[in-house]
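FIELD: query
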Amino acid sequence: MVSRKRLTPEESRSSALAAARALLIETGPQAVTLKAVSARIGRTHANLLHHFGSASGLQKALAEHIARTVCETIIEAVHASRAGLGSAREVVDLAFDAFDREGAGALTSWMLLTGNEDALDPIISTIHDLVDELAPGEADHEGAQNIHRDTLSLVLMALGDALIGGALAKSLGLPRDAARERAAAMLEASLAEHQTA
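FIELD: result
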């Protein structure tokens, strides 16, 4: 009989989230089940129930995990861009990759379609925290919500591109990265306007 290594609760949760993220990217959101994740990490279904409560709880934790790790990376890129070490396109690519390659777009649409809208709360909250960190006090100044507007546009463009961007660009005879180019141009124009104001 093979004995399993005893994991701390944090290690167990982290292991489950890593497996859930891998399943999401490899197979799609419908594969992110307690059974599939427990099989992948060699834990019991009951163990995952203990940590997440349900498949819905697992998806909510996964959404929060993806949002947090992606937003941390985006914050670093924005700070580098502001210091002249990065570009608006790098920020755009990070956001678009989060929704496309990292599976956040598929997970978002899956949660909406299955009636699990409250699982989106961590994504919305994390994005809100990102904006607050990048533009502290901006929300208090009426009419001066440039970063809020840019974030809304960027997230909606990235989500839409993840869901239908490839097919739509192809049907319109545009390059696959056309939406990324538009988003980068929008962000560069907004940054230039903000710097001259």
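FIELD: remark
The mean pLDDT is 83.
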